[in-house]
Design a protein that fits this description.
Blueprint: H1 3-6, H2 8-18, E1 31-35, E2 41-46, H3 55-61, E3 71-76, H4 88-95, E4 99-104, H5 114-120, E5 124-126, H6 131-137, H7 139-147, E6 151-159, E7 163-165, H8 177-188, E8 192-196, H9 197-203, E9 222-226, E10 244-247, H10 252-261, E11 266-269, H11 273-281, E12 287-293, E13 301-302, E14 318-326, E15 329-336
Parallel strand pairs: 3-4, 4-5, 6-11, 6-12, 8-9, 8-11, 9-10
Antiparallel strand pairs: 1-2, 1-3, 7-13, 12-15, 14-15
């Protein structure tokens, strides 16, 4: 067995720990396990959100900061940056560990460089253990860190023939209650929920994440509205529990860069066909959530408008990653085939 293979079981546990951390916020989900020279697990840790100890420090705290001769198994390259907390690479060096095993490198130019610091201190480093699994777990955060914009999910609910509304404009409800509740859960898994001003003026949406009984979920996405028309003073969004960001132009790349600078790493696009088509056309979609209701409308508003495709050779290929039944509906999750 290779050295990397020897640590796969520990890395799987570290990935499980990482999954306990919040999916929203500017920090990645990270797990860490400290293993003694004889293979005994000394401590486990994970990151619980911005301002809390990173996974490595969380684990080290459980052994009073000392782990002489131990191996640290971490899902992400230890950071080399001082922010709200100190560099994890330094904490590991000072703890006395002799080896660090990690899954994926940190693409953040500010936080990266931990490996070099560890090796300079004489610590053995093994990289790439269960890299594929870790990359999938961290995919939204990794894409955001690499591209300097949020991970973008575009959602729509349509009939089987691709209509989001009937010819008279009615759309409640194309899909059933299970799909609608799933949408609320997805809202809570994103930092921001985005629509165009047309949706605000037409529907006056609340854009909150709510439970089965209509109660607000503990985690709420910030509401973002893009468009040259302002949000009315009496709109429900003016009372959004997480606040409202208005962007008065349709320069989507610039708008996404602005949201990234504000710490937003995951955006849920839930506007109508116009805003969804704009994101598709500009190549800014990382994931699609398509909810299909078992009805046929035959006419009415399509889920997408013109996205710049005039022939089959120009079609935008997608890769379906999952298909799920939600009551009588079907949820298709897809991502760009050429994707990241």
């Amino acid at each position: 067995m290779t050295a990397a293979g020897h640590y796969e079981e520990a890395m799987r546990r570290a990935l499980t720990l990482a999954g306990r951390g919040p999916v929203t916020g500017g920090n990645p989900q990270v797990g860490c396990i400290l293993i003694s020279a004889d293979g005994t697990v000394l401590a486990e840790g994970w990151h619980r959100g911005a301002g809390t100890p990173h996974a490595e420090v969380d684990a080290l705290a459980k052994v009073a900061g000392r782990a002489d001769g131990a191996t640290a198994v971490v899902t992400l390259e230890p950071c080399n940056h001082t922010g709200r907390t100190g560099p994890c690479a330094t904490a590991l060096i000072e703890s006395g560990v002799s080896r660090v095993v990690y899954a994926v490198s940190d693409p953040d130019h500010l936080a990266g460089g931990g490996v070099e610091r560890l090796r300079a201190a004489g610590i053995e480093v093994i990289a790439g253990v269960l890299a594929e699994e870790a990359t999938e777990l961290l995919r939204p955060w990794l894409i955001a860190a690499r591209l300097g914009r949020p991970f973008i999910t575009v959602k729509w609910a349509s009939s089987l023939d691709g209509r989001v509304a009937a010819s008279d404009g009615t759309s409640q409800w194309v899909t059933g209650t299970a799909s609608r509740q799933h949408v609320h859960e997805q809202r809570a898994r994103h930092d921001a929920i985005l629509v165009g001003t047309g949706t605000v003026l037409a529907d006056d949406p609340a854009l909150t994440a709510r439970g089965d009984g209509g109660e607000l979920m503990p985690t709420q996405p910030i509401a973002v509205v893009i468009g040259e028309r302002g949000v009315p003073a009496d709109a429900k969004l003016r009372r959004h529990p997480a606040g409202l960001i208005e962007i008065d132009n349709r320069d989507l790349p610039a708008a996404m860069a602005h949201l990234f600078e504000r710490g937003i790493r995951r955006v849920f696009v839930e506007g109508g066909p116009t805003i969804a088509s704009a994101f598709v056309t500009t190549g800014l979609v990382d994931e699609y959530l398509i909810y299909l209701g078992p009805i046929l409308l035959g006419a009415g508003k399509l889920a997408l408008e013109n996205i710049g495709v005039s022939s089959i050779h120009e079609a935008r290929p997608l890769r379906i990653t999952s298909v799920e039944r939600l009551g009588d509906d079907v949820l298709i999750v897809a991502r760009p085939k050429e994707g990241r």
